[in-house]
Amino acid sequence: MNEPLARVRKRRKELLEELAGIEQMRRGSLCPQVFEATRKDGSKVYRGPYVVYTYKEKGKTVSRRVTHPDHLPRYQEQIEAFRRFEVLAGELVRVGEKISDLTLSDEEELKKKRGRRRKE
User: I want to staple 66 with a disulfide (CB 3.0 to 4.6 A). Which of 40, 43, 51, 81 is the partner?
Assistant: First the structure.
């Protein structure tokens, strides 16, 4: 096995190990929400900010208010974990393509060497 292929396979293994370490993740984001209300006397008052967790499901945005402030750090960690998952998955695809290319080029080299031996 050639050196570049061994290096790329090692990177693939590292990516898979890091992916396996991601247990909790969620799509979406956290957004602040503020409401403007008008009192009976005509003055305006603002309610909030409330934190809303939003994500897409079947092409529609789903929103859910986070009612416990102590849950916010966990939501943020889970969202960041999903974003890391997306980066790692993309890199894993690129590494898989690189392995495929290197494997094919190795096979082509073997065919060329075998072909030269037969002609001699």
Answer: 51
